[in-house]
Amino acid sequence: MFHGPSLIIGAAVASVSIIISFMAFSAINDETELVLQPIPNIKESNSQKEMTSTILANGSPILGDVNAPITLIEFGDYQCHFCNVHFHNTEHDLLENYVYTGKVKMIFKDFTIIGPDSINAAHGTHCAHDQGKFWEYHDILYNNWTGENNGWASSDNLLRFAQEIELNIDEWSNCMIEARHSQIITDSSKNARDLGITGTPAFFVIGPENNIVKIIGAQPLENFEKIFESELKKIS
Description:
Glutaredoxin, 9 helices, 5 strands, disordered N terminus
């Protein structure tokens, strides 16, 4: 039911070839020890402002207190294995310890790189957002994950998920058929490529002084905690 628009969107995303390189952040990958290196005299530069704008644009509704001092942005694909690992192994503790306590607010951004069902699933969340249930649909997708490109995110299953979280199905289905949110999905994936992201999940942490830290992959909870606690000390 939804695959025609998805193929068009996928082609648009795949056509993005310009990658802008930003250097105004610290990067974390598989290092055993996390070291934050502040970048002096750059917080007001045009490149820093442009990077922050690119990170924040085309995202989900905020989860948590909009006035929280730290912002965590995740670029993910709902079919991605390691995104699912992060969701089940780490995200719950991040929410309990930092988001629900008002220290961190969270934004999800689409980077639909695995297949057409990735784009369809992303559409499902944005159509759910029209009814105020973005995060409920986000969660039900990851809670029903069974692999990559194996059919779990088929049109029939996406419809069933919408029913399970009690969306207005006529409204949601019309949104899906019309591919109403194609632009935000395409633009979010372009943002990811412009930021030099090549896989999912990838995260950016924006601190209270607007410094940025990049985290690549499904890192353990303690890596996030080190960053958050370091940033929180700046306002204590």
